[in-house]
Structures are given as C-alpha cells and as structure tokens.
Amino acid sequence: MLPFGAMSATSEVPAAFRHAATRPGALQLLGDAIDDIRSRRRLVRYLVQADIRKKGADTFFGNLWWIIDPLLQMLVYVVFVGLILDSGTPDYPLFILAAILPWKWFTTSVNDAASAVTSQEKLIKQIQFPKIVLPVAANSAGVVGFAFGLIPLFAIMLFYPTRISPYLLLIPVIAVVQYLFTMGMAFLVSAVNVFFRDLGNVLRHVLRLWFYLSPGLYSLALLDATPLFQENPVLSFIAHANPMPILFEAYRAVIYGTPDGLPGMPDWGGLLALTVGSLLFMAVTAIFFKRLEPQFAKVL
C-alpha cells in the first residue's frame, strides 16, 4: 500500500475504471455525484469557510469588499448609462443594482469554479476524495457574497421607499433557481479547465459579453421594442431563452417593479422553466464531471 501523501495518479483512478470492461453508465455517475456531495457536507462547509476567510484576508477592506464592490459597479453604470446616455429610467440606481448583485454572484462563482480543481493540484495528487465537492464549495461560497450584497441593496431602497414591499421576501426563492443554474456552470467549467487551462482567460471575456447581451443595463421589454428584434423573431427567442434575463427580470419584479409601477410577482412560468432546465443542465454537467474526474490527477 502506498503511504499517505504518495498516492500515484493511477491509484487515484477508481477500480471500476481501471479494471471493468465497461465504464459506469450515466445514471450511476449521477448517483455517485449525489452521494459524493451528500456524504461530504462537512468538507464542503469547511471549504466554503476557508474560501471566505481567504478572500477576506487578501484585500484591504476584507469582507467589506462584498458590500463596496457592487456599489462601485452601480456608480459606474449610473454615470455612464443614466447620466451620459440619459436612459430615462426612473430610480435607475435601484434598477441597475437589482441586476448587478445576482450577476456578481454568478461571475464570482463561475470564475472561482474554473480554478477550483486546478488550484488544488497538490491535494488531488496526494489524497483520494471526490473532486466534485470543489466546484460545489466555490458556488456555495458565492451565496455568502450575494447575502452581503443585499446590505447595500436594502440601504439604497431607503431612498426609494415606495419600492419597498413584502415581495422582497421572494428574493431567496429566485436565488435558489440561480444557485441551481450556477452549479451546472460550475461543474462544467471546473472540469474543462483541467484540460484547457486557457479557459479562465476566455471566460472573463465571454462573461463580459454575456452581461451586455443580457438586460442588465436595460429591460427586456425595451429590447423587444427595438425594430431589430421585432423584425427578427429568432433574435427575440434567443434573448428570452437566455437564463440571465429570466433571473434579472425576476429580481427586478420583486425589488424594482416597472418604471411606472410598484414591485410585484415574478414570472413564475419563466422561473419554473429555468428551474427544470437548470436541474437537467446540472445533472448533465455532473455526469460530465464524474466522467472526467478519474483523469484529473494524471493531467494535473
């Protein structure tokens, strides 16, 4: 038996992969992924706590940066879009912050997940453990940042008291849907980045483009009213199929409402469709992750 800390890349590969004539099926891999996450809940919690402490220690403002950063982003967009381009949207700081907060959570989780496996190279080569807990921890740590971001949101809402309503209690419901979708993305990018290390660089540009193509700075209704989208149903379908507009519009419905109206219920049909799609996406990417997992130690 190899001593602890000297496990080879070959021994890291489960016996079912090294000796069985056939590889495990998709359902078995999905079941293994669920069991790995469920049985390693304490490890996930430890990794989340370690990530939070590390991020708080790496910056001058520490954990306060989770509050300051979205406010600074909001200020940039308010000056550029609200003042220079004169968007004409009432209460625009609240309008834009309702999209910035979930987007910051999404991008932080995806970027952290991209390096979740590769950053643990030494640990993976020394200890055999389910690697799928790494992207799970990266996404779960993002929830803490999102919770901190709600502090400046509620502070900003004090300047717009007419927007304060009981519908704010629905924010966690929408956040659960986002968590499921982001988890699928975390499984995907964390596995792919092991084999294509340039993914992290490409991902930043893709996410930036994704934000501008989503109604973060504008409403989906405004996009639908443009001649380009009215004359091209395909573009309109793509815009509505984008998961982020569904989330942005849901958050805005309960936080901001409409330019001429008060907050109200989100589009439950859209959220339900996104929930089902996210669960399927998460299952497929979890299977993809588990299929590649035996090769991680060898590639790293």
What does this structure look like?
By secondary structure, the chain is mainly α. The chain has one domain. The protein contains 16 helices and no strands. 33% of the residues are buried. The model is unreliable at 1-13 and 15-21 (pLDDT under 50).
Write the layout of secondary structure elements.
Elements: H1 9-12, H2 15-19, H3 26-39, H4 41-58, H5 65-84, H6 92-114, H7 121-126, H8 133-157, H9 171-195, H10 199-213, H11 220-224, H12 227-231, H13 233-241, H14 243-255, H15 268-292, H16 296-299
Helix pairs in contact: 3-15, 4-8, 5-6, 5-8, 6-8, 6-9, 6-10, 6-14, 8-9, 9-14, 9-15, 14-15
Feature tags:
mainly alpha, globular, disordered N terminus, 300 residues
